[in-house]
Amino acid sequence: MDGFWATALLWAGALGSWLFVGTFLVDGLLRPGYRPVRHAVSALALGPRGPIQTANFLVCGAAVTAGAFVLPAALGSVLPALAVGVFGVALIASGVFPMDPMRGYPPGAPDDTPATTSRRHDLHDQDGMVVFLALPVAAVIAAVVLPATGWRWYSGITAAVLFAGFSAFGSAWERDDPRTGLIQRAVIGVGWLWLGLLFASAAG
């Protein structure tokens, strides 16, 4: 691929990653009835303003997937690019299949977790598991294959934080911990920052 377009796709992956975080942080603070400390990021795809977060999933996922196509040449290895590509596709699917209303959002939804959930909610959960597994796997691979010592350490630390953080988020979600949203936001911030910097570094 022409160097200009390869660089453009890498920067698309970087900006898509960072804009995803900025969008849900700002929208979560401004959304009526939404409690960022408790509610998951995915809940922003519900309600009248839900299309904002749906678009956020789709745009970020598409940008990351597109960038993954040119990562092998930039990184000198296809393995981290494969994991990043899986992450991007799963993020798109997370936008296609939104979660069910629950835990008080949107306003009027039951304050607890329904005993049964819809097929689309189940698919969203499955896609989310892929998202939360593919990103730390990509970081583990990067810690092994990247030539720069600093990037190896950064990727290894990021992978450890992501595995621990996503486990903590899963546990908090199951308990409906009042800090579930806060935990998820912290972990996403770490992971998406690393991913954006990986793309930006590859773009040079």
TrEMBL record:
<keyword id="KW-0812">Transmembrane</keyword>
<feature type="transmembrane region" description="Helical">
    <location>
        <begin position="77"/>
        <end position="97"/>
    </location>
</feature>
<keyword id="KW-1133">Transmembrane helix</keyword>
<protein>
    <recommendedName>
        <fullName>DUF998 domain-containing protein</fullName>
    </recommendedName>
</protein>
<dbReference type="InterPro" id="IPR009339">
    <property type="entry name" value="DUF998"/>
</dbReference>
<feature type="transmembrane region" description="Helical">
    <location>
        <begin position="128"/>
        <end position="147"/>
    </location>
</feature>
<feature type="transmembrane region" description="Helical">
    <location>
        <begin position="153"/>
        <end position="173"/>
    </location>
</feature>
<keyword id="KW-0472">Membrane</keyword>
<dbReference type="Pfam" id="PF06197">
    <property type="entry name" value="DUF998"/>
</dbReference>
<feature type="transmembrane region" description="Helical">
    <location>
        <begin position="51"/>
        <end position="71"/>
    </location>
</feature>
<feature type="transmembrane region" description="Helical">
    <location>
        <begin position="185"/>
        <end position="203"/>
    </location>
</feature>
<feature type="transmembrane region" description="Helical">
    <location>
        <begin position="6"/>
        <end position="30"/>
    </location>
</feature>
